[in-house]
Amino acid sequence: MPELLDGLLAAALLGSAWASLATRDLTRAVVMFIVFGLLMALAWARLQAPDIAIAEAAIGAGLTGALLLDALGALGLRRGAAPRDEGGPRGEP
After folding, report:
1. Is residue 32 a contact partner of residue 19, using CB atoms and an 8 Å limit?
2. Containing domain of residue 71, as a range?
3. Entry pTM
């Protein structure tokens, strides 16, 4: 039974990594990156390395994912968000 769980975890890791790299939607890519980080934390926990698992969940999935989503929001690249118009010399007609 543990071998089946490990195989499913490995397949999920590969699938989420591929989905993160292959998608053209940046929001979906960031979400898949967060999913990959959480699955990787689970893999570290299965390998009996809880300290690395906690660090992966906190830094890899949590902090990095939040920063990437914030960057997408600041650039106006989120789904349904219109690009921000900063104005200025180039933005004026």
Report:
1. yes
2. 24-78
3. 0.77
Q: How far apart are the first and last CA of the chain?
A: 66
DSSP per position, 24-71: S-HHHHHHHHHHHHHHHHHHHHHTT-HHHHHHIIIIIIIIHHHHHHHH
Residues, the chain: 93
Between CA 6 and CA 31 the distance in angstroms is 23
85: Cβ–Cβ under 8 A, 6 or more apart, which residues? 91
Whether the pLDDT of residue 37 is over 70: the answer is: yes
Total structural domains within the chain? 1
| 93 assigned to some structural domain | no
